[in-house]
Amino acid sequence: MIRVTRRYRFAASHRLHSEQFSEGENRALYGKCNNPHGHGHDYVLEVCVSGPLDPVSGQVVNVSTLDQLVASRVVQDFDHKYMNADVREFQEVVPTSENILRVVEKRLAAQWNSVFPGGGTHLESIRLRETRRNVFELRTS
Amino acid sequence: MIRVTRRYRFAASHRLHSEQFSEGENRALYGKCNNPHGHGHDYVLEVCVSGPLDPVSGQVVNVSTLDQLVASRVVQDFDHKYMNADVREFQEVVPTSENILRVVEKRLAAQWNSVFPGGGTHLESIRLRETRRNVFELRTS
Amino acid sequence: MIRVTRRYRFAASHRLHSEQFSEGENRALYGKCNNPHGHGHDYVLEVCVSGPLDPVSGQVVNVSTLDQLVASRVVQDFDHKYMNADVREFQEVVPTSENILRVVEKRLAAQWNSVFPGGGTHLESIRLRETRRNVFELRTS
Amino acid sequence: MIRVTRRYRFAASHRLHSEQFSEGENRALYGKCNNPHGHGHDYVLEVCVSGPLDPVSGQVVNVSTLDQLVASRVVQDFDHKYMNADVREFQEVVPTSENILRVVEKRLAAQWNSVFPGGGTHLESIRLRETRRNVFELRTS
Amino acid sequence: MIRVTRRYRFAASHRLHSEQFSEGENRALYGKCNNPHGHGHDYVLEVCVSGPLDPVSGQVVNVSTLDQLVASRVVQDFDHKYMNADVREFQEVVPTSENILRVVEKRLAAQWNSVFPGGGTHLESIRLRETRRNVFELRTS
Amino acid sequence: MIRVTRRYRFAASHRLHSEQFSEGENRALYGKCNNPHGHGHDYVLEVCVSGPLDPVSGQVVNVSTLDQLVASRVVQDFDHKYMNADVREFQEVVPTSENILRVVEKRLAAQWNSVFPGGGTHLESIRLRETRRNVFELRTS
Question: Which of D32, D37, D41 sits opposite E85 (nearest CB)?
Fold first, then answer.
């Protein structure tokens, strides 16, 4: 079984702040990530796909097809944006890395079967590196 | 299911040498890592935690809490130290990366339930990068 | 002659937009860096210092002293901030990497002689890595 | 349970081209990787091994033994070579990263039991980093 | 004075071999880089530009303009190519990193004044990272 | 003019402590680097050489010759060693990065003319990366 991991990058800003907390609770929970005007990161997004090896092409997945999906559904909407204001889903949930992963997973899953028909190609996991010190992974299975 | 990996660093020195081997056996087994006065590395320690996503905070684990645990129980005792002489556990076992992982795991596990009460937060694995060429991982499950 | 380069990091967001340009000119010049709500980066700041080698300590500069200067005058004010709104100087100039370097240089120079008295310690250059692909350097001499 | 991952490097060139496809199909499928004279990469190969911890040596695997196996069976034959012409197996299959992993796995498996007798040492997975953006992993179990 | 360094990448293959040497001399001089079918690298090319800071835009150089120049004159012709066969200049000189730098410098210089009219923008140096271990720099002044 | 930078690595340990300071002064000056049993780093050493380009070989320096010099005079004596005890020169001066550079420079210079006869090959600078955050450079001219 072979897994292919493809790496993407986007530069974005966010602010961690929940309307369900008081000012003091937000500050205590999120620290400087709660600063009022937001701040930014160079996010690294890794998409991990598995599937049967095509014996002729010698490939598990057509990487260009995956690139187009991730670019059109994720990178284009996130790159050089302020996620709190510019990405629809983050008007409802706080743009923590955990929630970013959930949004990315939902967006990819919604198109997956039409982009990779036949059911053999599987989205295994998504990793988001917020900084060198923080990496988050969502496993779909 | 979401996993959070947090990265720490410490600079330390060690010598690989077992009293249960002869000088020749030590040299044959450990090579230049057996040199008499020790040598050092910039270790990278990654702690991987999983747990349920808190729907309000959007987080799996409070990273500051994890940082305090790892700093007080591991980094503070290992950083800028000669592990053979300065870390109690290595007076009994050789400070190979494998044994360092076991010591780190035991130290974190001893405090885990009081630091993360409720049982939802799980220590999944610990990785130690000795050098770029050598990475060791201890999985707890 | 020995030079010491010390590396710092800060995560910040910015928007490239000049009031002296029209909307169209801003968009043409700055591209997606002109997006209205800003975006962010993990900036790497390198401060390069030279000076005579102290024959007893074996050091060119006291790194802790340099760290305190850079932390108090730069990192503390820039880290986890939206530079356009949160850093005073960027209410007058666009926070391009070039201008960030000039602001950092002015802030360090203003304190330099009181922090490093005697004139032997010299601020050689400041480098700012906006992303892996873009590095900017200001040489003071 | 402890896993040891050891990293190797080799610089090699390849061309993605299958005799079973037409010129147009090759170009459509492999893009610029189908360019007629090949191109190259600095490949990173990671070999991941697990096994019981030897209580005296404090080690899971003798790294020198692993190095000799990987050097003699893989790196020596791949490094500074044009894989299509110089590595026997790629006269039959296209040297995609997926197929390189399969060749590496077959070569290591053929020697494994004589190099690591007793059955306790297990080849868990092999990872190949073609570029920063593309990582492939073959899991043996 | 501010310098801007912009990073590009291309994957290419080459063979070090001079017709002016015997087979034995080629092998002695170039070692495994002389292997008959070539081998490859992921080259990193850094282009370093200086110039006056535009007080309104806050920029030293229009990075998009630089990107177009380097893409059209260098990356497009080198990426995913076998330099010995595919890049005209290397039919006369050996594609060592030193000679690659000279070819890149000549190609950029030929277009420089029409792309950056006025004479204020200066090509300071070009760096080529062949591997992590080997970096080459050509300074134009 | 072309410069070649070649990168080497060695893992070593050291303790910063001067007999000319009191215990308190040592602790105040060197902080945790003064811990009594030493600590270690994975040092990166970069040697930067310039010279005329040989028109036939297309090279500025024979890298194998440089490697043999640096290996025999530096890496072999420093790698996997405790510099305070194992490297002769550090029985007289404190093994700070600045002093390590001076020792390396003296060792290379002593052999330079016999290894690179003719005077065309010049040792431009030596850089030592102690950690990611600290880089030291000695320029010979």
Answer: D37
